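Whiteboard transcription, Tuesday session. T.W. wrote the C-alpha cells on the left side:
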C-alpha cells in the first residue's frame, strides 16, 4: 500500500548539507520514496500520516554496535565512577574478558532473546539500520555462535542488520601470535565460507592489537572479500587511522588520538571516520577527536552509538546526536548528517538508504519537534513519534 506523510514542518533530505525542505510531504510507493515536496496523488488506498509540527529525517543508521552479548557489567561501572579507569579494569581481567566469560556461558537462544529485546528498543529511538559486531567469543566455535545469533536476528528482524566479525582482543592464556594465526588461518576462512559477516573489524590500540598485527589480519580478511573496519586510536595514536587509509577500509572508528595528517589521509582514500561520542561520555574520557581538522579538510564524519556492555550503554541515536554536539562540539547539522547519510556510507549502503530522495528505501523517522535544531536540544525527551521501515510503520505513538 502507498503511504503519504503530509504537513511536515521540515523534511531533512540530506541534499547539499542537511537539505531542509519546509512545509512538505512525502509519498511512498512499494516501500520506496516516490515524491518529496508537494505531493499530488489519486491513489485510493493510501495510508496517511499527519506530520504536523514534526520533522521527518532519514531513519538513523547506527553503524557501530556490540549489541549481542551476555551478562552485564554494572560492577565495573561502579568501580569506574569511584575512580578506577577503564584501561586498568581491562588490564586486571575485567572489561572485554568479563563479557567474553558471560557470553560464552549464554546459550544461542538467550543471546537471541536479549538481542531481540535490544533491537525492539532501538526501533523506538528511530534506528532503521544497525551494524552488530561479534568479538565476545574469541574462539572459533564461540565467534561462530555469536555470528549465527546476529544472522538469525538479521533474518527475523524488520531492520537491516549488518554483521561484522570483530577481532577484539587476545583470549586469556593464549599467546598473541598464536591467536593471530588462528584468526587468519581458521576463523576468517570459516566465517567467509559460511557467509556470516559482511565486515571484518579489529581493535587496533595500545590495549589490544598493534598496527602490524591489525594489518596482517585485515589483509587476510580482504583476501576473503570482507569489507574492512577498524577500531582505531581510541586510547593512543598507534597509527590505526593511517592503516585504514592505506587499506581503504570502509570506516575507521573512535579516533580520539587521530592527527590532522591522518584525517587527510582518510579523506583521500575515502575512509569514513566514525566518531562515538557516547563512549567518551560514558567513560568520561577527556581526550576529544580533532573536530576542527575534519571541518577544515571537509572530511565527512559519521557518528554511531558503540552500544556495548562496558564502555557505552547508550543505544538511542537522538541521544548520540546530542552528545556529538555537547561532548565533541560538533555542529547540529553535522551531527544529524553523521547519524544518517554518513552512517549509511560507513556501511557502504548510501545507494539504498541515508537520505530522503526519490528511489531510496523509505526508511524514515518522524520526530516530535518543529525544527531540526530541537533534535539535540531536547536531550531529556524521547522525541520519536514514528519509525518507518521500507514504507511500513514499525513503531508509533499518538501524541
Ligand atoms: O568499542 N574499544 C573496544 N571495544 C568496545 C568496548 C567493548 C567492551 O568494553 O566490552 C568499544 O568501545
Ligand atoms: Fe566498538
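and on the right, the sequence the group agreed on:
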Amino acid at each position: 500500500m502507498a503511504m503519504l506523510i503530509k504537513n511536515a514542518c521540515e523534511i531533512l533530505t540530506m541534499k547539499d548539507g542537511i537539505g531542509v525542505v519546509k512545509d512538505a510531504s512525502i509519498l511512498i510507493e512499494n516501500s520506496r520514496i516516490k515524491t518529496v515536496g508537494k505531493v499530488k496523488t489519486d491513489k485510493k488506498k493510501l495510508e496517511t500520516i499527519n506530520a504536523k509540527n514534526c520533522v521527518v529525517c532519514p531513519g538513523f543508521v547506527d553503524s557501530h554496535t556490540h549489541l549481542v552479548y551476555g551478562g552485564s557489567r554494572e560492577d565495573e561501572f561502579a568501580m569506574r565512577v569511584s575512580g578506577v579507569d577503564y584501561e586498568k579494569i581491562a588490564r586486571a581481567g575485567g572489561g572485554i574478558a568479563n563479557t567474553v566469560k558471560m557470553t560464552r556461558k549464554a546459550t544461542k537462544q538467550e543471546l537471541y532473546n536479549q538481542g531481540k529485546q535490544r533491537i525492539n528498543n532501538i526501533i523506538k529511538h528511530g534506528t532503521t539500520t544497525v551494524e552488530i559486531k561479534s568479538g565476545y567469543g574469541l574462539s572459533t566455535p564461540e565467534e561462530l555462535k555469536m555470528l549465527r545469533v546476529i544472522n538469525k536476528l538479521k533474518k527475523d528482524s524488520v531492520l537491516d542488520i549488518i554483521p561484522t566479525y570483530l577481532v577484539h582482543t587476545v583470549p586469556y592464556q593464549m599467546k598473541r601470535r598464536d591467536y593471530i594465526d588462528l584468526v587468519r588461518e581458521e576463523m576468517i576462512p570459516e566465517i567467509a565460507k559460511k557467509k556470516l559477516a559482511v565486515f571484518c573489524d579489529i581493535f587496533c590500540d595500545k590495549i589490544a592489537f598493534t598496527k602490524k598485527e591489525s594489518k596482517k589480519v585485515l589483509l587476510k580478511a580482504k583476501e576473503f572479500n570482507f569489507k574492512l573496519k577498524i577500531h582505531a586510536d581510541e586510547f593512543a595514536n598507534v597509527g590505526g587511522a593511517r592503516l585504514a587509509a592505506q587499506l581503504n577500509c570502509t570506516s575507521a572508528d573512535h579516533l580520539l588520538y587521530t592527527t590532522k595528517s591522518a584525517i587527510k589521509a582518510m579523506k583521500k582514500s575515502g575512509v569514513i571516520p566514525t566518531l562515538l561520542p557516547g563512549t567518551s561520555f560514558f567513560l568520561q574520557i577527556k581526550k576529544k577527536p580533532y573536530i576542527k581538522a575534519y571541518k577544515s579538510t571537509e572530511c565527512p564524519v559519521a557518528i554511531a552509538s558503540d552500544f556495548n556492555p562496558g564502555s557505552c550503554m547508550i543505544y538511542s541515536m537522538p541521544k548520540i546526536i546530542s552528545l556529538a554536539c555537547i561532548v565533541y562540539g560538533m555542529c547540529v547539522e553535522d551531527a544529524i548528517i553523521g547519524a544518517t547519510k554518513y552512517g549509511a556510507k560507513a556501511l557502504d549502503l548510501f545507494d539504498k538508504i541515508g537520505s530522503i530522495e526519490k528511489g531510496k528505501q523509505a526508511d524514515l523517522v518522524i520526530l516530535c519537534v518543529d525544527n531540526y535544531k530541537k533534535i539535540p536540544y531536547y536531550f531529556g525527551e524521547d522525541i520519536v513519534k514514528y519509525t518507518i521501515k521500507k514504507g511500513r510503520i514499525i513503531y508509533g505513538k499518538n501524541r
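Someone added at the bottom: The longest strand covers residues 2-12.
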